[in-house]
Amino acid sequence: MMKIAVAGTGYVGLVAGVSFAEMGHQVTCVDIDEKKVASMRSGYSPIYETGLEELMKKNYTSGRIDYTTNYHEAYRNADAIFIGVGTPEQPDGSANLSYIATVARQIAESVEKDCLVVVKSTVPVGTNDKVDQFIQDFLVNDVRIEVASNPEFLAQGSAVHDTLYAERVIIGTESKWAEDILKKIYEPFNLPIVSVNRRSAEMIKYASNDFLALKISYMNDIANLCELVGADIQDVARGMSFDERIGSKFLNAGIGYGGSCFPKDTKALDYIAQQNGYELKTVRAAIDVNKEQKTMLYKKARNRLITFSGLKVAVLGLTFKPGTDDLREAASLENVPLLLEQGADIYAFDPVGKENFSNVYPEGANGKGHITYVESVEDALSGANVCFIFTEWGEVKAVTPEKYKQLMRTPLVFDGRNIYSIEEMSSANVEYHSIGRKTVERGKSEGVVSDELQTSRY
Ligand code: UDX
After folding, report:
1. How far from 416 is each of 174, 256, 262, 289, CA to CA, in Å?
2. Could you tell me the CATH number of the domain that includes residue 391?
3. Considering 29, 226, 261, 387, which one is annotated as catalytic?
4. In terms of residue numbers, what domain contains 407?
């Protein structure tokens, strides 16, 4: 059992802290927010994550985890201190390291015994060296402190599982002493450990995330070409997936990647390359393709409808992916303002993201448009002239093609997640635009849809 302190209780810090406690370590999570600390002590998680609250309650009750704002007390006699604070993106794409610096200074002024400081936050290559130097500069007591890198690979929505059953644990150290401490901490997890130096560990994080982002942008690029040449991206992806060198995961074309990692980490690595006088062309391309992909459907819909003014627009899904209430870099945030600008009357459904979204776009009039948050997919679709699917929530996937036909005033669907099969939508007589596949037109007997749409009000 090791005495561990964790700085920051966001996705990275809290999930790491809870996982260490679950594996038998004695953990104290530090956050600057008193209210947040009080609510975590009562067993409430500040983030929406499957299984997290159960583990928080269980380990708090058994005394293996506690939460505090008193960093001095938490760091003073810890064996290891994990830093999991944010490194938000700055306007130039670089990472803001000021939260890391604040914690590093607090550590330097608090520690009273030998201790390993472990950076879990995603940081530019070379940051661990700087944190190490920074801590040595401010160190108050005569103790041994070393900094190690231990990047995090969890995905939101499956964070606890991804940590407890990680495919690998990357540890970046500069001494046997540091390596041994980290190995001891991870011993009870029984996971494959890859031990490298600090800079390589920092790079593994960026290289992994950016590779996945690149994979998605590549599929989106191919999808756009599929549309032009009459191929079907889902069939293409299926055909590719049998090649083990390519793999079957992360081949889904869609409305572009969002979230807290891919957008930030691609831009950060691009920035690091530029700073070093190198042009990282592949990553740059992934960024560019993703930017355009986000509004691809909107542009298709605008061409089809000419204007959204006075139309009832159903928006299904607001979060950047299902299983999270996180809106960071979500396609909805790019598209909803464009629709509102055009005077759309939006009815938005999301099982958990409504509250966060309404903080950005409050219910009611928004510029030329209007937004209403509804409790069910059916409420969003009733009487709608057009529907956009931005997130593949189970609640959305459960809607049958016939429902669109039944409930919408005009069954016209723009699907950014390729949820439905072309055949199903075609036999339900729904006009269906998706990504990298052919458009399903409605049968001639239905008349010309666009004329009806332009004059219709619900
Ligand atoms: C990601 C990585 O998976 C994780 O390892 C890393 O630590 C943090 O970033 P996360 O952002 O939570 O995790 O979600 P992920 O499931 O990877 O999806 C990211 C984005 O890519 C979502 O917007 C998702 O919709 C999109 N995506 C994913 C696709 O468009 N196509 C795919 O095939 C897969």
Report:
1. 45, 9, 18, 15
2. 3.40.50.720
3. 261
4. 294-455
In the chain, the amino acid numbered 220 is: N
Tell me: the pLDDT tens digits for 357-401? 999 999 999 999 999 999 999 999 999 999 999 999 999 999 999
Q: pLDDT tens-digit profile of 142-156?
A: 999 999 999 999 998
E strand or H helix at 412: strand 412-415
Which of 196, 217, 239 is the last residue in one of the domains? 196
Using a 6 Å cutoff on CB, does residue 155 contact ligand 1?
yes
Query: Ligand 1 test: best mutation among 121, 161, 257, 292, most atoms within 8 Å of CB?
Result: 257
CATH number at residue 237: 1.10.1040.10
Phi, psi of 118 (to 5 degrees): -120, 120
Q: Which residues contact 28 (CB under 8 A, 6 or more apart)?
A: 4, 5, 6, 65, 66, 67, 68, 73, 74, 78
Among 123-127, 403-407, 440-444, whose mean pLDDT is lowest? 440-444
Query: Residue 349 CB: number of other CB atoms within 10 A?
Result: 24
Ligand 1 nearest-atom number relative to CA 262: 9
CA–CA separation, 233 and 438 (whole Å) = 10
Q: pTM, whole model, 2 decimals?
A: 0.92
**What SS3 class is residue 53?**
helix
Residues 243 and 138 in one domain: no
